[in-house]
Design a protein that fits this description.
homodimer, alpha+beta, Butyryl-CoA Dehydrogenase, subunit A, domain 2, 5-stranded mixed barrel, two-stranded antiparallel ribbon, 19 helices
């Protein structure tokens, strides 16, 4: 394993300089915190990661979670994380103080989790989903549900999960078939199977609080008939003791990566004795669940960015230590009697490393931008402001989820290549990062689903208001960058790309207006790549502007090489990544339709 | 596992219709064979693959090769492949009849191996490297070496390997440090370590014939001082019995994929008793070894294309069987009460499947094009013809190696995505294909090395003669396609791309002329992607033209849907892949230099 898995200055630069945490901390809602306390919190997280999480990272891969005698067994560190997670506030960090949380900005929570996930990405789903399910109960549950479950979840005593997927209902949630039959005492009998339940069962939690999508008897078909239930593995008797609630762990899924993060197959009500409690109103379950899903989507993007950054540092460390070959001299010949050079000095290796840096830190900045909008929304007192940031967060969420996940594959794949043959060997960590990374483009709505959401829903919502607000935000960065001669050409190119988005939307929008929605959305994934690439350029220009400003103002928080490296990587991103947008726009505005099925099978 | 792992009609279409095997069979050298005998050979290969190779494919991954008590243990099927490989002519198929081979065209050998590798890619390196080392001895070895080793290698009794890499000499072969000290009897004492030796040791061969690069005492530094030796694991005593030759297996490498294909760490001469026999003249070893390396590079491209095709069929099968969601109706709404549709009907899934088909079959066609040039060269009687096809093969080799390997990652990665969550699960085969695929861009010279070869050597050789010949070949396809209205726009676009290559070379060539070779080559990998994408377009146009011709001529070897699917996939390739070439040309002709190290470290 590499000595370094995360660059704390880069994270702090993003948190404070690029994404202006100060403007969040100056709000009433987050006003209890200041830079000093936040830095102390982040330091404790880094120490915890160094001491507990990183040392067992490869172990969790080589000794994966497994199913035995009706239970899933996981690495002991899972117990540590849940326990310390409660003590350190890892689970409760963004929760309101009135509910026992730290009421930290999501940007800080995101930074903390990114540190831990860079150290060991197999672990953070356990506290993360526990947090998400507790938040869901806090938002929509009855006082009784809140009191019964949330304190013990936030303390790490009990774990939480989200149960959506069924064997016949993966991306298509409208086909959820788990049933809920009303009982005289106000509870519901739950019956059904859920698969791919992350953290769904293990030996280190006394209870699992499953948040389950199910259909109340007689509910309408489709998503309109889905309700949300709290279904604990063990129900709480009147005397406070626990009683088995007929939630059976039927097995687990063995995977190519994230092998320490267990994935359960759960059966609810096999003995007809599984009780669930309705959250909020009937038939509104999917709407509620979207709160948790949106949170999880941001978490997925964050996790992917964290892995990509860790992989970058591992590749960079190797490149800085491995001598191989010689630099090409002026004659085009290499002098075989001279010392070998370090591979970091070969342009192609530098290209791969810069690509890793550009995509991983760029991905992280996209996630932080989403977290910033969340915090702006959460702390806004003016309803219009709240709505503005709500729309911006809605716009960003599919990109926050997808860019780090998809570009994370590209960057980590390049990270393997930096090591040559060693990159493929189990002895080196790069191959594990690559295997772990592969799930993120599938989690919480695949890239295809996110792309439909971005183009079909988010770009169109409120007559394009979200898209308009996002363009304004990007324009503000263009304006700020234009103050510096060095950045002007890139600001200009970003502006050209804003126009390009408008042109593409004009072309595609015509299909939506004609009612040809299948055609409108047929290249949604290409549109996602197109938008994501431009948003990545926006973030890099924003980072470069912050760096340039620091250099010009003589800000010495970090040294000049640090700031220069951000500007250099921005240039790299614009040269090697932004060049792709005209080609993608061509695909998106091409009249030829090749992927819409017309009945005849021509794929073969 | 999927029911189907390869489409034989597609391979035969490429062999006969696209790459004109008839023109090869009409030569004197290959004249012993005809379509009927070749088809029988391919059928026997397919049966063998169905019965012996495919059934153990996942087993070889879950029960990988391992090192124990000084030896590597592999799956028993390795023994079967070596034995049957001898009997069926799998090892000797392209070898001249005078040496006991079948003297089959490389195009046929390539087709046969692609079938077997699509069935099980962990196996073919064993006979493949045995063939390659036997061929190397046949080309450059003394009669005594030939007689001693080759018959028993071609029969599968003994295995062959290539030993290049050392711990300190990976991509940089000029740093090979293994020594060879001349002995009175004409042999050499060999001393050194070799790593990453594929098929380097296992329990199913009585002997291993290692072809080892080493430096004779006093040899000059660099590649000019490297000689080639036959170093058997067991040397042959005068009475014909075997005696240990001090070649120790020190360990193996555990890997993320191809886990059934063992990778050895060998130590030669630890007890100062390892003998080697010089092949050819001293100090010319690297030149000789390039014969085997070039063969291996074609084999690597072939293996990658085979895996990508197998992954395509596995994804397609899943997509044709998995119901999920509904097609988007005219209203933009989905009717949740209707039956779910098969996912093959979703445009985004079709896009991914077509991408898999375009990149995998396109990759295979590039490999077949290389094999065709090899056969033209081998069968040419006119020295000028021979030289022409030699140059074309030289041009194609780095692309044959790289396109299927790099695009194979992209296509197989999309193949995983087609399956959603199941794609990540060990229970489904896609994740294994993805893991297996990852090594191909590293084997036999990484993509970076191939790219330097393409731009720095092949594009420039004989004043650009190879590049000129390749352009002529591509132009011939453009001319042929132009006969059909449906293909004209694509032919035109390919022509535009030929000009684009010329423009890029004019820009880059200026740096070479100025002597700034580092800058000339700094974006070689981008150039490889650029050239490979265009060569892929060339191959697809060639396939579409052959298909169109068959449709127009009423050729009913395959049905109309088969031919239409090739034309459809060509259009897909041009829309989604060829659109990338202008952006890549922009990168290649961009004045901004960001990856050439200038002493200061700005990567951080």
């Amino acid at each position: 394993m590499a000595k370094k898995y995360i660059d704390i200055p880069t994270l702090k630069f993003q948190l404070y300089n690029v994404h202006d945490l100060q403007s969040i901390l100056s709000s009433d809602y987050f006003g209890e915190h200041d830079e000093e306390t936040i830095n102390l919190f982040l330091e404790s997280i880094k120490d915890f990661s160094d001491q507990e999480l990183y040392p067992v990272f490869t172990e969790m891969d080589t000794q994966p979670a497994y199913f035995k005698d009706g239970q899933i067994m996981v690495h002991p560190v899972v117990g540590t994380v849940m326990k310390k997670g409660g003590e350190m506030g890892i689970i409760a960090s963004p929760v309101a103080m009135e509910h026992g949380g730290l009421q930290l900005p999501l940007a800080v929570h995101t930074t903390a989790y990114a540190i831990m996930e860079a150290a060991n990405n197999h672990l953070l789903g356990y506290p993360g989903l526990t947090l998400g399910s507790a938040e869901l109960i806090l938002s929509f549950g009855s006082d009784e549900l809140k009191e019964t479950y949330c304190p013990r979840m936030l303390s790490g005593e009990w774990a939480g999960t989200m149960c959506l997927t069924e064997p016949q209902a993966g991306s298509s949630l409208s086909d959820v078939a788990t049933t809920a039959s009303p009982q005289a005492d106000g509870s519901y009998k739950i019956k059904g199977q859920k698969i791919f339940i992350s953290g769904g069962d293990h030996q280190f939690s006394d209870n699992f609080v499953h948040l389950v999508l199910a259909r109340i008897d007689g509910a309408p078909a489709g998503t309109k008939g889905i309700s949300l239930f709290v279904v604990p593995k063990n129900r709480i008797k009147d005397d406070g003791s626990l009683e088995f609630n007929d939630v059976i762990t039927a097995g687990d899924f063995q995977k190519m990566g994230q092998r320490g993060y267990c994935t359960a197959h759960l059966i609810f009500g096999e003995s007809d004795d599984c009780r669930g409690w309705l959250v909020g109103e009937p038939h509104r379950g999917l709407k509620y669940m979207f709160q948790m899903m949106n949170g999880a989507r941001i978490a997925v993007g964050r996790g992917a960015a964290a892995i990509a950054m860790a992989a970058y540092h591992a590749s960079l460390e190797y490149a800085n230590e491995r001598p191989q070959g010689r630099k090409i001299g002026g004659s085009g010949k290499k002098d075989a009697t001279s010392e070998q050079t370090l591979i970091v000095n070969h342009p192609d290796v530098r290209r791969m490393l810069l690509l890793q840096k550009a995509l991983s830190e760029g991905g992280m900045s996209i996630v932080m931008q989403g977290a910033h909008y969340h915090d702006k929304m959460a702390s806004a007192t003016d309803p219009k402001e709240k709505e503005k940031y709500h729309l911006l967060l809605e716009m960003m969420t599919p990109i926050v989820k997808t860019f780090p996940s998809e570009k994370g594959i590209t960057s980590t794949n390049n990270g393997v290549q930096v090591l040559g043959g060693y990159g493929f060997c189990s002895e080196y960590i790069l191959q594990q990062y690559l295997r772990d990374m592969r799930i993120f483009a599938i989690y919480e709505g695949t890239t295809g689903i996110q792309s439909l959401d971005l183009l079909g829903r988010k770009m169109m919502m409120q007559g394009g208001k979200g898209a308009h607000l996002l363009a304004q935000e990007i324009n503000a960065t263009i304006m700020a960058a234009t103050a510096y001669d060095e950045l002007k050409p890139y600001a200009k190119e970003l502006g050209v790309n804003l126009k390009r988005i408008a042109e593409v939307m004009e072309y595609l929008g015509a299909f939506a207006q004609k009612g040809d929605f299948e055609r409108f959305l047929s290249d949604a994934t290409v549109f996602m790549d197109f938008m994501g690439t431009i948003v990545g350029g926006w973030q890099w220009l924003k980072m470069a502007t912050a760096a340039k400003e620091a250099l010009v103002m003589g800000n010495t928080t970090y040294d000049a090489v640090f700031y220069e490296s951000k500007i250099h990587t921005m240039k790299f991103y614009f040269k090697y990544e932004m060049q792709k947008t005209p080609g993608m726009a061509e695909i998106l505005t091409d009249d030829e339709v090749l992927t819409v099925a017309k009945g005849e099978e021509v794929i073969v």
